[in-house]
Every structure is written in C-alpha cells, then in structure tokens.
Write a structure and sequence with these properties.
Number of helices of chain B: 18
Chains: A mainly alpha, B alpha/beta, C mainly alpha
Distance between the termini of chain C: 55 Å
Structural class of chain C: mainly alpha
Shape of chain C: globular
Structural class of chain B: alpha/beta
CATH architecture of the largest domain in chain B: 3-Layer(aba) Sandwich
CATH class of the largest domain in chain B: Alpha Beta
Radius of gyration of chain C: 27 Å
Number of domains of chain B: 2
Order of helices and strands of chain C: HHHHHHHHHHHHHHH
Number of strands of chain B: 16
Radius of gyration of chain B: 25 Å
Helix content of chain B: 40-55%
Number of strands of chain C: 0
Helix content of chain C: over 70%
Oligomer: heterotrimer
Strand content of chain B: 15-25%
Number of helices of chain C: 15
Largest sheet of chain B: 8 strands, mixed
CATH class of the largest domain in chain C: Mainly Alpha
Strand content of chain C: under 5%
CATH architecture of the largest domain in chain C: Orthogonal Bundle
CATH topology of the largest domain in chain C: MetI-like fold
Shape of chain B: globular
CATH superfamily of the largest domain in chain C: MetI-like
CATH topology of the largest domain in chain B: D-Maltodextrin-Binding Protein, domain 2
Distance between the termini of chain B: 44 Å
C-alpha cells in the first residue's frame, strides 16, 4: 500500500502531496463539468420514443434501450456517410498540414518582401462572415467547373480544396508561433554539418514541432469532420453525403428522430476521440526540445 | 505594421475593383442542360425513349422521405427511361440552397417542399407556375385548402402532395375523458389537470412561437395579413391580436395551466411522458404519439382547438401543405418526365398508400380523402375535422415579415414584459418596416 | 527497498492496465464492425474502391498543380533571377495562391453586391443593377436603420463585443488553467486530458441542443442545481440577461478544450531549464509564471487569441442553437443579425454592406492588437 502511494507521488515529483491532491480535485471537477452535457447526449441516445428533453433527471433512463443504435446501423446509410467523411477529412487534414508546415516555416525564418501583407491577408480571410462567402464561392466553383471541366462542384474535389483553404490560415499562424519559439542556432548548427535549409527544416524543425503539428492536424481534422455548410452546398448527391448531411435525414422540420440523431452523434465522436487518444504521444514529445537546446 | 495593412487594403481594393468592374455576374445559364448533371449514356436503340435523369430536392426526413424514394423507384420500374436522384434537405436549407443553385443555374429539376417557399421562389422568379404547366382544370381534383395555399399573385404555383400541416388539440385519453368544447372549459379542465408541484400540466405547446399564436388570432377574429389588399398589408395592430395575446398570457400567468417555459421539444417530451394532459401540435407529429413505446403512456385523442368563448369562433390554425414546385429552367423532355411523375403521385392509389404509410398526413386528392382509410380512422378524421376550420397560410413573402415581427413581441408578452396591446402595436410597426424594405 | 519494488510493480501494472484497456476498446470496435458491416448494403467494396480512386485522383490533381507551380517559380525565381528570397516564395506559394484565389473572388463579389439594389424581386443577375448611390444607401441603412426588427446596429454591436470579450477571456483563462494543471508528470494525466477534450470532440449541434435543455426552467440541470442550494429558479431562455448568460456559458464550455490543447502545446516547448534556474534563484510559482511562462507563451497565445476573437465575434452556431437571438432579439450578435438580414429578410444589398462593416471592424481591431503585441515578428527579426 505504502509502495503504491509512494508510486503515485513518485510519478509526480516536484509537487507536494497536498498540492497534488488539490490538482487532482480541480481536474476531477473540470472533467465532471466537461462530461456532464456529453453524458446527457448519451442519455438521449438511450431513450426510446425520441424525447429530446426528459423530465427525468436520471442520466440513464429507466427505459434505456440500444434500439436507436441498432436501428441506425441496420437501416440507414450510416457507414457510407462515415466513410465519405473519413476520406474527405483525412485528405483535407494531410493537405492542410503539409501546406501550413512549409508555409509557416518560410514566414517564421525569412523576412521576404510581402511577408507581412501575406500574414495579414491570411488573418483577413477569417474576418468576413462565412455565410456571406458561401454563395460567391459556389458561383466561382460552378464557373470553374464549366470553363475548365475541373469538377469542383458535385464531387469531393471542391470540398477538399475549400476545406483545406479554410483551415490553412489558422494553421500557418499557429505553426509560425511554435517555430518562432525554436532557436535559430539549432538550424545553424545543422547547416554547419552540411544540411541545406530544407534539410535543417526536415531534420530539426519538424521533429521538434510534433506537438504543434499534432494540434494543427487535430484542428483541421475536427473542422472538416463536423463541417456541415460547405458539403451541403458543394455535394448535393446522396451517395457522396458526409455524415453531417446524412444525419439531416433524421431531422424533420418539426419532428426529429432525436434518439437516432444522438446515437449517431455519439458514434461519430469515436474517430475524433481515438485521434485525440492517439495524438497524446505526439503532444508531449516536444519535451525533447529542452534537452536539445542545452 | 502600417505598411502591410495599407498594402493589403490597397491590393484588395484594386483587385476587387477589377473583378467587380468585369462584373462578378455569374456565368450565364445554359437553360436546357445543367452541365453538372450526370450525363446519361447515349441512346442506343432507336425505339426506346430517351433516358431522362431527374433531380428532386425533398424537404422531408424519416418516414415520408423513405416513402418518396420508394415511389420514385416504383415509377422508374414503370418507365425505365426515367430515373431519379432524390436529395433531402432541411426546410430552411432547401430555401437557401435552392436560391444559391438558381443563381448558378444548377438547381434541381423540381422540388418537394412546403408552401411557404412558393412566395419566395415565385417573387425571385426561379420557379414556373404549375398552372401554366398543367392547365387550370387539372387542379379541380384536389381538396380546396390544397389549392388555396399555393396561390401567389392569382396563380397556382405548386401541385399539392399532401394538405394540412395544421395545428390541432391532442389529448391523452388516460387523463382526459372528453376534450374541452370551448376556452372556458379548457381553462377549467386545465386547472383540474395541473398539479401544483409541476409534475403535470393541463396544456402544453410551443409557447413563444407565432405559429401557435395564429389559430387564436383567427379565433378572436383577426389575422396577420390582409391579402385582399394590393400591396399586401399587415393587420397586427388590432383588438383581435391583442385579445389573442392576452388569452395566451393569461393561460400562463393567471390560470397557470401551462408550464413556465416550453419550447417545441419540451412540450413534445412532456406529452410523451404523460406529464401533460393536452397538447397543441401539428399533423406531422401524430405518428410520433402512436409508436409502441409512447402508446404505453399516451392514449391519443384528437379534437378541434376549443372554440373561443368571447367570440364564439373556432380558432383557425394555418393550413398549408407539401407541394411539387418546378424549376423555371426545366423544359422539354425533362418537363414532360416531371409532369408524368407528378401525375403518378396524385393518383388515388398512391395517395391512399401515402396516408397508410406516413401516419398522420392527409392526402391532397379529394377522391383519396373520401377513402375509408381516412374516414374510418378517428385520429385522421379528427385532423380532417380541424382542417375544415383552418385558414390557408399566406404564401406571400410578406408573411415572413409578419412572422419575424410577431416572434419577439410574443416572447415579450409571454415573458410578462409587455402589455398585449403594446405588443400588437409593435408587431405592426416592425412588420410594416420589414415589408417596406422587401421591395 | 520493498517500496521501490512495489512502485516498480505498480508502474508495470499501470501500463498493462492501459494496454489492456486499449485492447478491449479495439476488440469492441472490431466486433461492432464485424456485426454491423455485413448487415448494411450501402458501403460495399466497390464503393470503397471507387471513392479511394476518385479521392486519390483529386489529391494527385492538387499535387500536380502544386508541382507545376513550384516548377515555374523554381525556373523563374531561382534559376533566372537567382533571387535570395526564391526559396521562401516557393515554400509560401502553394498555400497563399490557393487561399488568395478562394478569398478574393467571394470578397469582391460581396463588395459588388453591397453597391447594388438587389432584393428578392430583383434576384437573378440582370434583374438588379449596380451604382454608387445604392452602396451609399446600403451602408447608411446598416448604421441608421434597424438591422433587426426592433434593434439598431449599435446595440447589437455593443452586445457582440461584450459576448466576444467574456468568451475569449474565459476561454484563455480556463484553457490556461487546465493546461498548467496538466503540464506536469501526473498519474491519470492522459485520462484527464482525454475527458477534457470531450466538448470539442462531440458534434456541436447535438451538444448545443443538450445544453439548451439543461437551461430548461423545470427540468434543466442548472435550475435544479440552484434549487438544491436554496436559490430561486431562473427563466433562462425567456429573460434577456439570463438568456445571454446561458448562451455565453454554453460557448465558454465549448471553447475551452481547444484553447487548452493549444496552450498545452505551447507549454511543452518551454524548456525545463528555465524553471530549474528560476527555482535555484528562489522564484515563487507566480514569479515563474509571470517572467517565464507568460512571455514565452506569447508567440503561440497571441495568434490563438486573435483568431479566437475573430471566431467568437463571428460565432453563429451557438447563439442560433441556444437562443435563436431571442427573447426579443436581446441575444442577437452582429453575425446572427447579418444572417437574418440576408436569409430571412432578403435584404441582399444591406447584408453585403453589413458583412463588409463587420470585416472592417475586425480588421482594425486585430491589426492594432497584432501591432501592440508584435505578433508579426519572427525569430529572425
């Protein structure tokens, strides 16, 4: 027992036991606040009869049932929607991270003409309310589709292009911020060893910024995964529907199949949760920076 | 910092001017062939009719959506050269996206949507009148409310699939033996059925939503718009509207037979859990109260919303319906195929099947409405009975102004923040203001 | 000695437990897929292969564009002009060209519509016309007419700033607090972090609806909590101030995890040696935070806060899902008013002018902010 307690504190050396206790209490509190509304969503998904609101305060309804899950999976095109979403989202995240990682490096390391205006332009793209950009964007895509035969509308291509562009400005700004914290001497050292500027980027900067890259990937992934408006306008074909569009089938003008809707929401959160769990390991590897810095 | 900002602004200004000078007018629409539509394989046999692929946007979800897709398949089995792509969209999304698509000339060939959209789409000139396509006589076979709710500027713009969409009084027979006949009875019964601890209420409904105010406006002798005038005028600052607001206010604050807060989902859930004896809700909701799980708690009865004692008038819920609307760009073979399909959808067999499969909705075809499938069903009969005293919802775009003018002021009355008469006056000002800007 | 052994065993057990948990989850997912995948018809191997092929083709297409662009830049800038900034331009070009194209056309379209008399009855191209006078009228109407039914621009403007300030403040505060707590070796740290990002990982639509219900007068969690403390119930959704508070609380709840993850990443890149040196000098925790953590966090925190401000200013979803701007338009912010102007009242010209006004406000504010905090500086400056 004593050993266990010792182990518990061993894993967190540096903090006094009392402080540690407080930290745990605060975190448990925060977790409860974070999880309660989510638990209510799970609770809705277990309710029969599509009751969005329950007069019952119990988290697990007395008449709990899995039927919403089984009905959703057996009768609707749920798997197809998730598959479509996954292909689009992964393409968008990978393209977004590659574009942002390279651009941000240039913004962080060189002071080239046009650098500041470009950074301001990136920020500007976030400022016009998205709802007003949608119609002209669609008109432009239709125009390109007609003029050049590039299928930007009615296929994944337009969606991938548009969603990548939505995430990249933020990604560049954030990555530039992280790169800025990495001292330039490290690359100088690598260059002395004979590496070119890109070699230094690849060998020094990228490994040191895995937490930032992971965050940017997560950001792009989540933004694309839950996006409803862009696919709604660009993909009006049922066989291409991503899950946010597919779920519309459950949502009528007044009457909505809330049980299945909640069940689907719980299920689509699984890939993002898995990604968060998996990325934990990348989020902490930045600690090596201290040792390299010397 | 100064420099980059100016550079960006200058650059944007110059580029924008250039682009706007060229006119960012969307590419002109080639009317016959939407270029994004999947091109059908070239016709091979000479005798076989040309393959046509139709795209329909559908506002439905769940059961009615599945039914509509099944019908397109049945139709294709009959006419193999005509195939369909059915895209479901939420009602508001359908309105916004159809306008966007119409700008680009990529809209679907026809729509399956609510009658409110007729006014907007007709005003924007992006649908064609159904009357011109089918001829005036075609509409004689539909029940009258179905045609009434599709008229805009003297023309019928849509073919009804189903009529109704009206509110009615639903009650749980396990709690209420006989539905109330008039408002006094409603209040008396409501008080008996409301428990002080909040575990049961006499009546629930979507308290702050103008759609639930409209029947009472009619019951007290008023209506939001006067469509007989040209241009259409708002008629919200009337004693009738003030009376209706006061009545609803008093149900909450004086008689206390409705909950302090209830939106659509709250009212729906409370009725489903047996915590509300009566509910005012629409025909779309009827099937949800007849499922096996809900039926354990709720023994559903349907009646008219009780007569207003003061005026001796029946409240008149807004009736509307679901319609086929045809894209202004649909022509030639496509238009013929659309006509054929719509014709098929309003035959008696299909309409009766609709009533049987999609519980709670009423058919648009008069012949189907007289079918035993409806007349023998007490719930559908009750719904039909309520519709008889309903009034068609105005389809003019001005109606949206009235809705938006009503909502905040109704909320104010229901929050006990404004006197009914003042709220009615404010509704009028807001609606007039909005109508003026619409032009 | 014994206890050291015990702690070793505990450490082992702990890692096994985690591995076991992961395996169990994996098995569950596999079983789930094995049960339901064969039962459905929509996702067939042909569909999977087909979509792989199209997406692969599209990604190749995008890559081809990038390579072509790079090649042109390489030949012109590097080989012909031998410019010293050639590499920087080549790195920046693909992203910037794409974004500029996707941004500038919609932006200028908006400007054009702001100078037009477009309305519902003059909807299609050709039916409406452009003119300076229309633009003047549109911009005037944004400021002097009511932008909603009952509410003018300045009231909504003030409320939007209040909304933005409160939200961003609590997002940063909450995110920073949690990140600081988590930025240490701590048992169960991974578990805490995973749970804390739940609000970000669950789709916003459904969780906002669930939150909406928690503010219900009778059955919501919040009122029941108040009652259990002996406080009166609040009509959260039918009173102006409570409704605003409810929407704000919901948005704070939704936004903290994102800030937490960003800040946690920033904290990871601060070297331990700074703290060790400070500890030797006898600096207190607060002093360490003030002189090490906070300044070193700035390169990451400033862009995140600026972006957060812009997003919150234009945050449409939460207000719409929780209050729809009600009661009596008392929780509308500029972007929800804009949405109503464009898509419910069909005032296209005014809405386009309105969008530009929002843009200019945000532009001015963020430009000042970035200048003050030096956010444009890179390491080489």
């Amino acid at each position: 027992m004593k050993g266990l307690i010792r182990w518990f504190f061993f894993r967190s050396r540096g903090d006094s036991p009392f402080k540690l206790l407080l930290i745990h209490l605060a975190l448990i509190m925060a977790c409860l606040i974070a999880i309660y509304p989510v638990a209510r969503v799970v609770s809705i998904s277990l309710r029969p009869g599509d009751r969005l609101l329950s007069t019952d305060l119990a988290l697990i309804p007395r008449d709990a049932t899995w039927s919403n899950y089984t009905r959703l999976l057996a009768s609707k095109d749920f798997f197809l929607w998730v598959w479509n979403s996954l292909t689009v989202t992964i393409s968008v995240s990978v393209i977004g991270v590659i574009l942002a990682a390279t651009s941000a490096y240039a913004f962080s390391r060189w002071k080239f003409p046009g650098r500041a205006p470009a950074l301001v332009l990136l920020l500007s793209t976030q400022m016009v309310p998205a709802i007003m950009m949608l119609i002209p964007l669609y008109l432009m895509f239709v125009g390109i589709t007609r003029q050049f035969g590039i299928p930007l509308v009615g296929s994944y291509l337009g969606l991938i292009v548009a969603q990548s562009a939505v995430g990249v400005p933020f990604s560049i700004w954030i990555l530039k911020g992280y790169y800025d914290t990495i001292p330039v001497d490290l690359e100088e050292a690598a260059k002395i060893d004979g590496a070119g500027p890109l070699g230094a980027f690849y060998r020094i900067i990228l490994p040191l910024s895995t937490p930032a890259l992971a965050i940017v990937f997560l950001f792009n992934f989540m933004a694309s995964w839950v996006d409803y408006i862009l696919p709604r306008v660009i993909l009006p074909k049922p066989e291409l529907f991503t899950w946010p569009l597919g779920l519309q089938r459950l949502q009528g003008q007044f009457q909505t199949e809330w049980g299945m809707f909640a069940a689907a929401s719980v299920l689509v959160a699984i890939p993002s949760m898995a990604l968060f769990l998996y990325s934990s390991k990348w989020l902490i590897s930045g600690l090596t920076l201290g040792s390299v810095k010397g | 910092m100064k420099k980059p900002i100016f550079t960006v602004l200058a650059l944007m200004a110059v580029l924008s001017l250039m682009l706007s000078a060229c006119g960012p007018t969307p590419t002109p629409v080639p009317p016959t062939k939407p270029p994004i539509a999947t091109t059908a394989p070239p016709p091979t046999a000479t005798a076989a009719p040309k393959p046509v692929k139709l795209t329909m946007w559908n506002k439905e979800a769940g059961e009615p959506l599945d039914w509509s897709i099944a019908q397109t398949k049945a139709f294709t089995a009959k006419y193999p050269n005509i195939t369909f792509e059915v895209v479901n969209k939420g009602v508001e999304d359908l309105r916004n996206d159809y306008q966007t698509a119409a700008l680009a000339g990529t809209g679907p060939d026809f729509l399956w949507t609510v009658n409110d959209h007729i006014g907007v789409f007709a005003a924007a000139k992006i649908i064609q009148p159904a009357e011109d396509v089918f001829g005036k006589d075609y509409f004689k076979k539909f029940v009258q409310p179905g045609n009434d709710a599709a008229v805009y500027e003297g023309k019928i713009w849509g073919v009804p699939i189903s009529v109704g969409n009206h509110l009615m009084l639903l009650y749980n027979k396990k709690l209420v033996k006989e539905p109330p006949k008039d408002t006094d009875e409603l209040i008396k019964m409501g008080k008996e059925l409301t428990k002080p601890d909040g575990s049961q209420y006499g009546l629930v409904y979507n308290l702050n939503e103008p759609f639930w105010l409209a029947p009472w406006m009619g019951g007290f002798g008023g209506w939001p718009l006067d469509e007989s005038k040209k241009p259409v005028v708002a008629t919200l600052n009337t004693p009738a509207v003030a009376d209706a607001l006061e009545f609803l206010h008093d149900l909450k604050y004086v008689h206390k037979i409705v909950p302090k807060e209830a939106d659509y989902n709250a009212a729906d859930s409370m009725f489903k859990e047996g915590k509300a004896a009566m509910l005012i809700n629409g025909d779309w909701s009827l099937s949800g109260y007849q499922t096996i799980t809900v039926a354990k708690v709720v023994d559903l009865g349907v009646a008219r919303i009780p007569k207003v004692k003061k005026t001796d008038k029946w409240p008149s819920p807004m009736t509307s319906g679901v319609y086929f609307l045809i894209n202004k760009d649909t022509k030639g073979d496509k238009l013929d195929a659309v006509k054929k399909f719509i014709d098929f959808m309003v035959t008696k067999d299909v309409q009766v099947d609709f009533v049987k499969k999609v519980k709670g909705r009423l058919p648009s075809l008069a012949e189907a409405a007289a079918d035993p499938a409806i007349t023998a069903d007490p719930i559908l009969k009750g719904s039909f009975d309520q519709m008889a005293v309903g009034r068609p919802m105005p389809v003019v775009p001005e109606m949206r102004c009235a809705w938006d003018a009503m909502r905040p002021n109704q909320e104010a009355v229901m929050g006990d923040k404004a006197k009914p008469a003042d709220a009615a006056a404010k509704m009028q000002i807001a609606a007039e203001d909005c109508i003026k800007k619409l032009k | 000695m014994r206890s050291v052994l015990a702690s070793d065993i505990a450490e082992k057990l702990w890692s096994w437990l985690r591995a076991l948990f992961a395996l169990a989850l994996l098995a569950l997912v596999v079983k789930f897929l094995a049960t339901y995948l064969p039962k459905q018809q929509s996702l067939t191997p042909t569909v999977v292969l087909g979509s792989m092929k199209t997406v692969g083709g599209f990604v190749a297409l995008i890559a081809a564009f990038v390579v072509a662009l790079e090649f042109v830049l390489y030949v012109i800038l590097m080989k012909l002009l031998k410019w010293k900034h050639a590499l920087a331009y080549m790195l920046v070009a693909p992203g910037m060209v794409g974004i500029a194209l996707l941004f500038l056309y919609p932006f200028s379209y908006n400007i054009a519509i702001a100078f037009s008399n477009r309305s519902l009855e003059r909807f299609l191209p050709g039916a409406y016309s452009y003119g300076l006078a229309f633009g003047v009228e549109n911009f005037r109407s944004v400021f002097t007419d009511k932008i909603l039914h009952d509410t003018g621009f300045w009231e909504v403007f003030a409320r939007t700033w209040l909304w933005t300030a409160i939200n961003v403040f609590f997002h940063v505060l909450g995110g920073l607090g949690l990140a600081l707590l988590l930025n240490r070796t701590l048992p169960l740290r991974g578990l805490y972090r995973t749970i804390l990002v739940f609000p970000w990982a669950i789709p916003q639509v459904i969780v906002a609806l669930a939150l909406h219900n928690e503010f219900h007068y009778q059955y919501g969690f919040v009122n029941n909590l108040l009652v259990s403390f002996g406080l009166p119930r609040v009509q959260w959704l039918s009173e102006p101030v409570p409704a605003f508070v409810a929407a704000t609380i919901s948005n704070i709840w939704l936004g903290i995890p994102f800030m937490m993850v960003i800040i946690l990443g920033g904290l990871q890149s601060i070297s331990h040696e700074f703290y060790e040196a400070a500890a030797i000098d006898g600096a207190s925790g607060w002093q360490q935070f003030k002189s090490i953590t906070w300044p070193l966090l700035q390169p990451v925190l400033t862009p995140a806060t600026v972006m957060g401000t812009i997003w919150t200013f234009n945050a449409f979803n939460v207000i719409y899902l929780i209050t729809v701007g009600g009661p009596s338009e008392k929780t509308d912010i500029l972007v929800t008013a804009l949405f109503k102007a464009a898509f419910e009242f069909y005032r296209y010209g005014q809405a386009a002018a309105f969008a530009l006004v929002i843009f200019v406000i945000l532009f001015a504010v963020s430009a000042t902010w970035i200048q003050l905090s030096g956010g444009l500086k890179g390491v080489t400056d």
